[in-house]
Amino acid sequence: MRTLYLIGGPMGVGKTTVCQIMKRRLPRAAFLDGDWCWDMDPFVVTEETKAMVLGNIRHTLSGFLRCSAFENVIFCWVLHRQDIRDAVLAGLDTDDWRVVHVSLVCAPETLRRRLEEDVRRGLRSPDVIGRALDYLPLYDALEVPRLDTTGLTPAQAAQTLAAWSDPIP
Predict the structure, then answer these.
(1) E strand or H helix that includes residue 32
(2) Alpha-carbon distance 159 to 2, whole Å?
(3) Which residue of 26, 36, 109, 131 lies most exposed, with the fewest beta carbons within 10 A?
(4) Cα dist from 76 to 28, 42, 46, 121, whole Å
(5) CB of 113 closer than 8 Å to CB of 126
(6) What pTM did the predictor assign?
(7) 8 Å CB contact between 26 and 163
């Protein structure tokens, strides 16, 4: 059976890096990062832009799911609330797909250290640290498995996720 991976987690936890590794390791894999659909300047969050981004995500995922070239589709985004996960899945034809949802988390100190390094390297703005730390406890409320990446390399996390067997309820 083909697999759709929905991978959530706060900013800086390693979602994109882990998913890029999974894409290379899994057979016939496609990867979509939800952040790519928010790549705009200025960054504007309105009801209109949120609807547009969600529509773009669903459109792209639908294309991957319909294409016989793919056996694995990997999607990552913050996905910190159940309604966001539900909205992404709404309207997707996943009848022939095993859907696996996982949240990547880590210790708050680890998340802070990773984000501070990104800020030092000019990859993120300093305000992301507080937002990411605020999001971290929200993953405990989701009824999806969590993978703690605190002591894992991205390659180890990718290997674990690629073998994940728990479909979403």
Answers:
(1) strand 29-33
(2) 17
(3) 109
(4) 17, 22, 21, 23
(5) no
(6) 0.92
(7) no
Taking the alpha carbons at both ends of the chain, their separation in whole angstroms is 17
Helix, strand or coil, per DSSP, at residue 28: coil
| Whole-number Å distance between alpha carbons of 162 and 41 | 34
* Cβ proximity of 162 and 7 under 8 Å: no
Place 165 in a pLDDT band, splitting at 50, 70 and 90.
low
Buried b (16+ CB within 10 A) or exposed e, 84-104: bbeebbeebebeebbebbbbb
74 in Cβ contact with 29 (< 8 Å): yes
Which residues, 6+ apart, have CB-to-CB distance to 87 below 8 Å?
A: 54
Residue 167 predicted with pLDDT over 70: no
Amino acid, single-letter form, for residue 105: V
Please report the pLDDT score of residue 150 as a whole number.
96
Helices 154-162 + 15-25 axis angle, to 10: 60
- Give the pLDDT of residue 4: 96
